[in-house]
Fold this sequence. Notes:
The chain has 331 residues and is α/β, with parallel strands linked by helices. It folds into two domains: 2-114, Rossmann fold (3-Layer(aba) Sandwich), CATH 3.40.50; 122-277 and 309-326, 2-Layer Sandwich (Dihydrodipicolinate Reductase, domain 2), CATH 3.30.360. It has helices at 10-22, 35-45, 54-60, 75-84, 99-112, 126-136, 161-164, 172-188, 280-292, 302-321; strands at residues 2-6, 26-31, 49-51, 65-68, 88-91, 116-118, 143-151, 194-200, 211-217, 223-229, 238-243, 246-251, 261-266, 269-272, 325-326. It has a nine-stranded mixed beta sheet. Helix 1 (10-22) links the parallel strand 1 (2-6) and strand 2 (26-31). The protein starts with a strand and ends in a 5-residue tail after the last strand.
Amino acid sequence: MRWGLAGASTIASEHMIPAFRAHGDEVSWVASGNPDRALHYAADHGIGRAFGSLEEALAAGGVDAVYISSTNEKHAPQALAAIAAGAHVLCEKPLAMNLAEAADMVEKAQQAGVVFATNHHLRCAGSHRAIRDLIAAGAVGQVLSMRVHHAVHLPPHLQGWRINDAGAGGGVVPDITVHDADTVRFLLGEDPIEVTALDGTSGMGEGVEDSVMSIWAMPSGAMVFAHESFTHPFAGSAVEVHGTLGSIFAQGVMTQRPVGEIELVTADGRRNVPFSNHNLYVEGVRMFREAVRGSGQPSATGLDGINSLRVALAVREAARSGQRVAVNYGA
């Protein structure tokens, strides 16, 4: 498969380009709004062509799929342009700045007959799949509550617009809460219906929130507590699932690497749960490639991306209004 890159991003260089090449795929071009950045990026990563705009790159052709990792406000117009050019699309989260844009992207892809996927990488982790399998097998009985701790420290080279540009989609809610929404949906197999939240700035945000805590009500009656932050250098990350028959404690699993530990605690005692340590991004690309061939679906579909965005937007609205907010599942 031949890929084009919309955005000369860090995630593409550190994770996605190696994942594409692990499958023998070619990265044909990179497009950036900064032509000099595109040229240097292409040279640094062995990419044959560089363009100063996505429109110019799409006109040049030569790709089967486009990976979008630009700033958030560009996702929708870039995805629509790629779809119109007949390319399959793998888009970073959040899909768009609002639900209408996200829905339009997915609808246009369906009409064009191309694969459209959201790059929610955590679904591809062996650790998360092991947790999901434990829950599905009834290892903890009826799920009563869940805690997602995703308070990390955003490294300097990733800060920039994420901490100071609301117009570009900055803030911890679109950056991390949207991931945690997809994680909860993936693990529990249900969608949050109502949220309440508080947000704030704790040393990094400049005009956007850098920390948020929220509580989500699930249709089953389970409750979820989620904590996301850019400002916690030593907190680590964790997922806990507590049920009538046991609890799952997963430490260090909210990450881009296949690491962490899972422990299941029941009346029979404690046991460590093994899981596959495969590369998350290589697995995500594998599933996307299979979907393009007509076999199965991407790990996270466009609808998954829409629904994670629904939850994140509800969390932000709840934090700003001080009210409980129903998640909008609309049409």
